[in-house]
Structures are given as structure tokens and as C-alpha cells.
Amino acid sequence: MTPLTLLWLNWSDMTITSGKIQCAAKIDKLNEVIEFVEDSADRFGLETKKKFGLLVAVEEAFVNICSYAYPAGEGQVEVCCGGEGDSFVLEIADSGDPFDVLSLPDPDTTLDIMDREIGGLGVYFIRRLTDEVSYRRENGQNILRMALKRTVETIL
Amino acid sequence: MEIHTQKKTNATVVTITGRLDAVTAPEYEKALNGLIGGGEISFVIDFDGLDYISSAGLRGLLVTAKQLKGKGGQVRFANVKGTVKEVFDISGFGSIFQMDDTVDASLAKLV
Description:
The complex is a heterodimer. By secondary structure, chain A is an alpha+beta fold. Chain A is 28% helix and 29% strand. Chain A has a six-stranded antiparallel β-sheet with strand order 1-2-3-4-6-5, covered by helices on one side. In chain A, β5 and β6 form a beta hairpin. In chain A, α1 packs antiparallel against α2 (48-68). The longest helix of chain A has 21 residues, at 48-68. By secondary structure, chain B is an alpha/beta fold. In chain B, 41% of the residues lie in helices and 29% in strands. Chain B has four helices and six strands, in the order ββαββαβαβα. Chain B has helices at residues 25-37, 55-70, 82-91, 103-109, and strands spanning 2-7, 12-20, 42-46, 50-53, 74-78, 98-100. In chain B, strands 1, 2, 3, 4, 5 and 6 form a six-stranded mixed β-sheet that branches. In chain B, α3 links the parallel β5 and β6 (98-100). The interface between A and B is medium-sized, with 28 and 23 residues.
């Protein structure tokens, strides 16, 4: 197994110690990425329910990169996590051709089972399971940024 | 993820534990394909020990359900709860599968 690059850094715009992981864009690295993100979310104190949503959203973004970012060959994925005020912030980046996953439409979740497209749910989960999500192209990378408030907000 | 199967009078009960994600969903599909290829067309999937599911996991469930429907088979899901249930609900999958609170309830509802 190839050891993952794991280093600690302080992002200027993040208020607590942040972590970063870099690995090959391959599905069999999913568990290592998920473990890293779960560990970071636990240290931040992200509520269990929010963390579960985060992990699903990260899997969707990671799998998407593995499947589509590098059609010509192999490439890397970088995941950075950190706290920003009361929010847990995660950025996942690839160096593939410019592509905004958020430009994809949501699937029709009301269709009968036989009419459902296989797949197409990934970006929908990313939108639904995060409090904020945005895309930017920077230094030759596609960067998807997700933010989740530490706890589920209640009205009172 | 671990998969265990148990043959009952009117169905095969498939127990899945751990994570149903992009890595493990192909294992689930392979296991179900093997059973369907062997002539099984009635299933109860027991989610009691499942901690996590993603869209790849849902896709695996949908693929096998479509195969079964094409063969006149049937599948019911038992013990879908907690965070796994939430993923079913936001995806709309919660309403397209037959769900029961227990394996026995699923078995009782299969023809």
C-alpha cells in the first residue's frame, strides 16, 4: 500500500489547526480519505448527524473525481479540512480539466424505480448534506468547498 | 462490509453489515447476482448492522432490484433506520422500496 501524504498546516483563513491528505484518484483509497475526514471532523466536534452527511458528501465528490477527472490516466486528489468559526470546512481538489460538478442538474427523485437513472445522485447528496457548497478553479485545480455548521440548528 | 445469506422457506435473507459504499457496493451486486443466477428471486435484505450508505450503495440496491423486477422476483428491506434511513429518504429511495421494521415482517409479506 502506498503511504499517504499527511501533513499539518495552518491556513491563514482558518482558525484551528487544519489537515491535508493527498492520494491517488483511485476508488480503493476511499477508506483512507474517509478516515482522515472523520478524524478531522471528530477533532472539530462536528455533530454525529452532520458528520455522517459530510462523509457521504465527501465520498460522492471523491468518487466523482476518481471516475471522471483523469480520463487519460492517473492523477491526484487533495483533501483539506479545518475549522472556520463555527463551521467545519473541507476542500477537495483535482488537477483535471475544468469541471464544475455543481453545474449538473439534480435527478428526479419522484420517479418510479424502473424509470430511475442509475446514479446521478452524487451531486444531489453533496448539495443536500452540506450547509454551503461552492466550486472554484484555482491554480489549475478544480476545488469543491463544503462547509457544515457544527450542530444542527434549531429554531429555539 | 460483510454479507451473510440464509435460505428461508419463501425467501433468501441477506444480512449486510458495515458500509455499503463505492468500494463495497460491487461486492453486494456480485453476491446478489450469484444468488439470482442460481435461481433465487425472493429476497429480504436485512440492514440492521449497516452503519453507512452512499449513492453508490443505493445504486447497487437499485441495480439488483431492477434485475429482480425483470424476472418477476421481489425484494423487501428490513431494519432500515437511523442515518441510513435518512439517506434513503433524501434520495427518494425510501418510497420506491418495500420497507419493514423486522425481517419476520418482511418474510410474512412476501408471497
